[in-house]
Amino acid sequence: MSARLSSVIWPVVHSERLALIQDLESLPPQQWEAPSLCPGWDVHDVVAHLVDTAKTTRLGFLRRMMMAGFDFDRDNALGVARERTEDPGRTLAGFRAVVDRTSSPPAPLATRLVEAFVHGEDIRRAVGIERDYPTAHVITALRYQLKTPAKMGGGKERAQGWRLVASEAAFEHGTGHDVRGTAKALLLAVSGRPVMPSELTGAGAEAFTQRARP
Question: Taking the CA of residue 46 as centre, how many other CA atoms within 13 Å lie in the half-sphere pointing to its CB?
């Protein structure tokens, strides 16, 4: 990890964690149980996952994977169970305690941006909160997802056969029928999250939206 890249990305991650904490501070208790965009997890689960990954070190990740039988889904489930408390307020306090951490699993640093933006929307869209993210960094996360196979948490296969074009930035990817939308909407779609039909336009938008759904 280069020092320059680290100095650029971590402040964004920390800022996004803090913004999400502020959004969650006034969340009614029942909304913590709302199904998130992340399949199988409610809002409380996603927050617990964010606490868990913020604490994860490279060496610790390898130990955990061995304990989980090298099953990513099982490791994630164990992490959620470990950090989710009975009181959402305590889980949020746990998140607040790790807001400035720079530990990470052994993965490219761009994954921290993917996590911040995608999981941030997993939560916010479930409870009706809107946020604009820094476009340049969303594009960085999107580029990473587009080159990463779905089995590794990316969206390379979902994007094949379409030309993705960001509406607010000089970004395009692939060939085929156009799919146009904000960088955020494209990131969510290639990450397997549902987006509103109105968020994507172009000749390939309808078919792409259907394919991108989990």
Answer: 30
Q: Which amino acid is at 184?
A: K
**Helix, strand or coil, per DSSP, at residue 201:** strand
Token pair in block for residue 54: 């913020």
How many helices (H) and strands (E) the chain has is answered by: 11, 3
What H or E segment, with its residue span, contains residue 177?
strand 177-181
Q: Are the beta carbons of 122 and 193 closer than 8 angstroms?
A: yes
Q: Which of 155, 214, 209 is closest to 177 using CA atoms?
A: 209
Q: What is the pLDDT of residues 6-59, one digit of tens each?
A: 889 999 999 999 999 999 999 999 999 999 999 999 999 999 999 999 998 877
- For the full predicted model, state whether its pTM sits above 0.85: yes
Cα-trace Rg, the chain: 17
User: For the packed helices 58-67 and 72-83, what is the interaxial angle rounded to 10 degrees?
Assistant: 110
